[in-house]
Amino acid sequence: EAGVAQSPRYKIIEKRQSVAFWCNPISGHATLYWYQQILGQGPKLLIQFQNNGVVDDSQLPKDRFSAERLKGVDSTLKIQPAKLEDSAVYLCASSPVRTSGRGRNEQFFGPGTRLTVL
Amino acid sequence: GNSVTQMEGPVTLSEEAFLTINCTYTATGYPSLFWYVQYPGEGLQLLLKATKADDKGSNKGFEATYRKETTSFHLEKGSVQVSDSAVYFCALKGYGNKLVFGAGTILRVKS
Prior knowledge:
The complex is a heterodimer. Chain A is mainly β.
């Protein structure tokens, strides 16, 4: 079974530029997550999709970050304009079931995109 | 809100030494608890989990017991190998399938 795919793996941009990351979840997984992992910290959830609808985006900086999941499969995360503090690894994860209830199902993580903002 | 605190690293051990990485949590209700591992250049992988009090999760020689009375989920391994060198994250999941991670602990094992 193919895992979660992400691209690019690395990206270097200057502040105030725009950048986009792409994620392809495991086939059939209804739920998709984007996390931000700053160096020395644990991953922090930015946004959670259930199919193509947003379940939780409470920690997404909406003035500069946006995300979409067209057709409930692939997803893109965009930053416009980027700031120095956006330097981090952006992780995508997917899980197979609905988010209602306790949701004990495992999240499968992609390799991440390492963003450096200069 | 929910939070996870784990011991700071890096933890440096010799091969075959005993490993303990402490993890404590604060949560409402009855969360599930997890340990994830991140090897250099790779994504997060689930190492083990426990879904209720007194459950013991185990995998690849690692184990952790869900202790509700002390709100802890310490990771242990009896004999570490160089290949265990990685970053270990403790995490909890409450309502809505939302994972909350600790800051991570770097483990370095020397031969």
